[in-house]
Specification:
Strands 7, 8, 9, 10, 11, 12, 13, 14 and 15 form a nine-stranded mixed sheet that branches. By secondary structure, the chain is α+β, with helices and mostly antiparallel strands. The longest helix is centred in the C-terminal third of the chain and has 18 residues, at about 270-285. The chain is built from eight helices and 15 strands. About 35% of the residues are buried.
């Protein structure tokens, strides 16, 4: 989209005119948190969960939101209107702001920087949902507070780029012999008895909002779920594998490293969970 209207510190402004100080701590230290909320039918999906996680992230980093979550949602909806977004997402970033010169310590008089912008894209009709993803495993080198959704994403970007360079769609990260999550998503496998397995919540993974919705939907649909550690070897011998995130919903994984998963096509469990999640999202936004 050209000439989007973006939000920055109380103003709606053309994207080409938006500016942030070079001394902003988000720029200098990745001292910032973010959220991405999906948009379907011109309305926000699961935004209450995203706002709750944003509030938690701010608490963990001693960041202060300059506006309350109700005002944030008003801004998000105004951006949807101004940019005529029917389907896509809204990115929100809050930094500690800037105050004087560069210094590691938290400045007492810093004014937070709040930025939001829209991205128009197809979410419901995605080729990757029909084809499935190919992922490779690699060591997880991220910091140990992955439960906080910060903007320090270089390790994740490197993982994804390494995967792309080697002909894969994404990376599944490993630590101490077990899969943590994808480079920008939560990871799941399906066992021979149709049990969905995913890593339990801790500081080691992001507490996915879509993940939480899928756990609830699985319970309602009487789909058995086990929250436990699993190895790359177990994943490669699984009946199915898939990922979830705010803007992918559910994508099947059809290959891990050199091992084809199942018959190499998206499996029925991943498709079922994607369908019922989309049904819920459409119901929310109708």
């Amino acid at each position: 989209m050209l000439n989007r209207i973006v939000y920055i510190n109380g103003e709606y402004i053309n994207e080409h005119d938006a500016k942030v100080s070079i001394f902003d701590r988000g720029f200098l230290f990745a001292d910032a948190v973010y959220e991405v909320t999906a948009v379907i039918n011109g309305k926000l999906v699961d935004n209450e969960g995203h706002m709750a996680r944003l509030t938690r992230s701010c608490h963990e980093l001693q960041l202060t939101l300059p506006v309350n979550v109700d005002e944030i949602e008003h801004i998000q909806n105004e951006l949807i209107r101004l940019n005529q977004i029917t389907e896509g997402g809204i990115y929100l970033q809050l930094t500690r702001g800037s105050a004087g010169d560069r210094d590691f310590g938290f400045p007492e008089d810093a004014q937070p920087t709040l930025v939001m912008f829209t991205q128009s894209r197809s979410l419901l009709d995605s080729p990757k949902a029909k084809e499935g993803l190919k992922v490779m495993t690699m060591e997880d080198i991220r910091w140990h507070r992955r439960d906080i959704k910060t903007t320090q994403l270089l390790a994740s970007a490197l993982a994804k780029q390494t995967a792309h360079d080697q002909g894969f769609d994404d990376a599944w990260l490993t630590e101490n012999g077990y899969i943590t999550e994808g480079s920008s998503n939560n990871a799941y496998i399906v066992t021979a008895d149709n049990t969905v397995v995913t890593r339990p919540l801790s500081n080691d993974i992001l507490h996915g909002i879509t993940r939480a919705a899928l756990m609830k939907l699985a319970d309602e649909q009487q789909i058995k779920v086990e929250e436990r550690l699993f190895t790359p070897e177990e994943a490669m011998s699984a009946k199915e594998a898939f990922i979830s995130s705010a803007t992918t919903f559910v994508y099947p994984v059809v290959k891990i490293n050199d091992k084809v998963i199942g018959n190499g096509k998206p499996g029925p469990m991943a498709q079922r969970l994607r369908d019922i999640y989309i049904e819920l999202a459409i119901k929310q936004t109708s």
